[in-house]
Amino acid sequence: MFTSFSTALSALSAHTTAVDVVGNNLANLNTSGYKASVVAFSDLVTQSLGAGLGETQVGFGVARPVTIRQFTQGAIQASTGALDTAIQGDGFLVVKDSLGAQLYTRGGNLQVNKDGALVTATGFRVQGWNEVNGVLDTTQPVTNVVVPVGSLRTPLPTKGFSFDLNLDAAGTAGPPPTTFSTSIEVFDSLGNSHNVSVSFTKSATANEWDYSATFPDADLTAPFTPVTGTVTFGADGKLVSPAVTDAMPELQVTGLADGASDMALTWNLYNGSVPRLTQYSQPSAVAANAQDGSPAAQLIRVGIGDGGQILAQYSNGHQVAVGQLAMAAIRNPESMIAVGNNNFGISARTALPAIGLPSTGGRGQILGGSIEFSTVDIAREFTNLIVLQRGYQANAKVVTAVDELSRDTINLLR
Predict the structure, then answer these.
(1) Residues pairing with 277 in the sheet
(2) Domain range for residue 123?
(3) What is the mean pLDDT of residues 371-395?
C-alpha cells in the first residue's frame, strides 16, 4: 500500500512536466519556425508478488517523461520583409552566436546589423557564401553572410556587343542603294556611355551587304577610323560569311577624351553557332541588341530570393547575386538540443550536420519573402491540457485515498 505514495507522486511529477511542455508550446504559438514538442510517458519496472512467477505484477509508477520535438512542416505565408525566409522541407539555416558556436535554426526573420552582416532576429550571424571579385563560389567553407549596404557598384566596361536583325532581301544596289543603320550604347572603364553605330548598304552582288561600324569622334582625341567589311547570306537567308569560325569584327577604340582606358569592342555575329543576322523579304529591323557593360550604379535594395540567393538591385536596373545562404541537413533532428532564441545545438546523439546548398542532398528549399509558422495546434494543445489536468487530479486522489487508508491502519493499533 505504501508503494502507492511513490507511484502517485511519480505520476504527479510526470504530469507536471507534461503540463509545462504544453504551456511552452502555447507560449510559442506565434514563434516563427517553432516546432511543437510532445511528451512520451513510460512505466517503471514492476515487482512480482507471490511465487515470483509473474502471476501478480505491480508497477512502481511512471518514469520521468521524455520530450520529443516534432519537426513537421509549418504553414508558409508570404511576408512583407525583403529578408524574410522560410524553409520548405527538411533542413536548417546555419548561424553562429557571439562566441562563434555553430547553431541551427528554422526561424526566418532575418535582418542586417550595423556591420552589414545578415543576422537572425536575436542577432546570431547567418552563415553562407559571399560574392568575391564578382564570383560567388559555393564550394568554399561557409562564412558570415555580409550584405552590401549603400555600396556603389563599379562600372563594367563593354567588351562585346551584338544585334539580332534582319536586312530586307528586297533591297537593291540603287541608285540610290538600300541602307539600314542602327546603334547601341556601350560603356567605358569610367562608366561613361558612348554610341556605336553600324550601317549596312546593299552591294551590287546578290545576297551581300557592306557594313561600316563607327565610334563618335567627339568622344575621342583623334578621329576614329570606321571598321568596314561585307556580310554574305545564303539562299536560305542565313548568314554564311563571316563564318562562325572566322574572326569577328572588332573596334579598337583608343584615346578616349574622358581619360578612360582603351576599348576593344567585339561585334558578335553569332549566338553560339546560330547567326544573329538574316536576310528575308521583310523590312530591315532590329529584333534585339545586347552588350556586356554597365555604368556605375547605386544600391537600391537587397532581398532574399527563392533558393536562398541574396539579390542586390542597382539603379542601373541590374540585379546581382551577392550572397548565398547555406543549409544544414541533419538525419535525426529530434536529438538536437534547444538552446533558446529559436536555435538548436547538436547533442552527442545527433548525426553530423551536412552543410550545402538548398534543394540538394535532401535539404529543403528556401523561399524568399515568406515565413514558416509555428507548428503548435492550439486545439490539440488545449485537449492535451485537459487530459493532463484530469490525470493529475486522478493521481492526487490516489494520494488522498492512500493517506486515509494509512490513518485507518494506524488507528487499528490504538
Answers:
(1) 165
(2) 77-152+299-372
(3) 93
